[in-house]
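STRUCTURE:
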């Protein structure tokens, strides 16, 4: 039969754990206020340091000091923090002005109303770890932490360090480090289910509102279960994953659905998607799109994504193309008296196939207030651009000012046409010339083995 001892501590930081012998049933009541830095002596953690703040412990413990499990150990009560400063070493992140509660119910742990300033972002958090106290000793990799975060304004640029490889902390030397080792194991190995809400969200040029994100974190891998937000007058949803590839890169697979957004704002926010062919200054209209793209991205979220592969389907309604140089160059060849500076379109839709910095433009119909065009080819960031523009001779008849363009289909018969081909010149810039002998078409026939 276990021997029970009941001890009450007014100063938790003076108690000697060696006084508890293995196998004794112990009940301990602890109630004390303390300087938060004193917790460092108890935790002996290599991942978390507490530098400032005050706290209050009000706990009762029942069970043996060692050989404890979920079945024979019960901790109930809470720890309250005020004005704390917490340093999370693996990511070099500080939580300032920390206020909140950690509530213990048997082996479960709950964090309630935890408020902090994190990298100049005001954050309100709550979360839970079911069976945490038992699993942190026996199997920390099975711990599941449910964590909820709300912030009125979130600047993602402040948190790119979360995507970096976790730094290895210098281990502290202490004879009583078992709790610290268990705590570090949970922090480093636990699976995290993260729910984030932000009224406003920014990252570089990108701005959004009403952001809701359900994210999973397994070791250094991020699972984007569902991210939704309002942007540029419309909405976006995102899913996919960021999987650790190297210390510098993530392998990413991202699926994006965009509904009814202002296309010029989207192009501006995403820095024209790393290309200079068509920019935010050239485009107007409402964009609906779906994309499924794989790529390697820098953990610092800098630079151009590498090994990009996937597709983009899009529809642009009420579209306009303004001051677009390639079409202005076409004007130098045909229809010289028409205004190519401001062109309005019927619905513009196509599929772009992306592979390794090259974008394949499938045959696309462009019905506009100026003329009808059919465009296809490859826009390349590697200097291999080869684009064909078919200009039907039916365009000879000038269109009235009130002409309303309507689509006939990308495969519709275009009749007799003039072909213009765009390829890099000696200066690297794309130059457009008459393709009198239809060399682009013959090249395509050769690639496909089908006569066009």
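SEQUENCE:
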């Amino acid at each position: 039969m276990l021997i029970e001892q009941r001890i009450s501590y007014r100063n938790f930081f003076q108690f000697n754990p060696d006084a508890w012998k293995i196998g004794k049933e112990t009940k301990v009541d602890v109630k004390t206020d303390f300087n938060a830095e004193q917790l460092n002596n108890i935790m002996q953690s290599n991942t978390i340091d507490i530098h400032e703040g005050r706290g209050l412990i009000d706990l009762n413990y029942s069970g043996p000091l060692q050989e404890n499990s979920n079945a024979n150990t019960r901790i109930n009560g809470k720890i309250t923090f005020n004005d704390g400063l917490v340093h999370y070493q693996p990511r070099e992140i500080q939580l300032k002005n920390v206020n909140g509660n950690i509530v213990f119910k048997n082996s479960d742990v709950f964090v309630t109303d935890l408020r902090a300033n994190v990298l100049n972002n005001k954050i309100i958090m709550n979360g839970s770890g079911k069976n945490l106290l038992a699993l942190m000793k026996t199997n920390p990799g099975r711990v599941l932490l449910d964590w909820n975060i709300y912030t009125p304004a979130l600047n993602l640029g402040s948190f790119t360090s979360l995507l970096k490889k976790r730094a290895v902390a210098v281990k502290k030397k202490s004879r009583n480090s078992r709790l610290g080792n268990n705590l570090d194991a949970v922090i480093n190995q636990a699976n995290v289910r993260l729910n984030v809400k932000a009224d406003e969200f920014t990252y570089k040029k990108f701005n959004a509102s009403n952001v809701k994100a359900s994210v999973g974190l397994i070791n250094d891998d991020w699972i984007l279960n569902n991210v939704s937000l309002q942007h540029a007058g419309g909405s976006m949803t995102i899913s996919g994953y960021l999987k650790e590839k190297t210390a510098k890169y993530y392998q990413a697979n991202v699926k994006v659905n965009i509904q009814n957004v202002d296309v010029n704002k989207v192009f501006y926010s995403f820095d024209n998607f790393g290309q200079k062919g068509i920019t935010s200054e050239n485009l107007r209209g409402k964009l609906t799109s779906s994309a499924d793209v794989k790529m390697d991205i820098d953990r610092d979220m800098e630079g151009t994504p590498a090994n990009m592969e996937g597709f983009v389907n899009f529809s642009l309604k009420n579209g306009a193309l303004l001051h677009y140089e390639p079409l202005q160059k076409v004007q130098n060849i045909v229809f010289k008296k028409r205004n190519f500076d401001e062109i309005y379109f019927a619905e513009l839709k196509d599929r772009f196939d992306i592979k390794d910095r090259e974008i394949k433009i499938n045959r696309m119909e462009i019905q506009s207030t100026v003329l009808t065009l059919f465009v296809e080819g490859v826009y390349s960031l590697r200097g291999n651009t080869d684009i064909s523009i078919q200009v039907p001779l039916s365009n000879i008849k000038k269109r009235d000012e009130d002409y309303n363009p309507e689509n006939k289909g990308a495969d519709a018969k275009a009749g007799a046409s003039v072909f213009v081909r765009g390829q890099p010149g000696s200066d690297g810039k794309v130059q457009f010339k008459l393709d009198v002998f239809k060399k682009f078409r013959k090249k395509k026939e050769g690639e496909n083995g089908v006569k066009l």
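REMARK: The chain has six helices and 22 strands.
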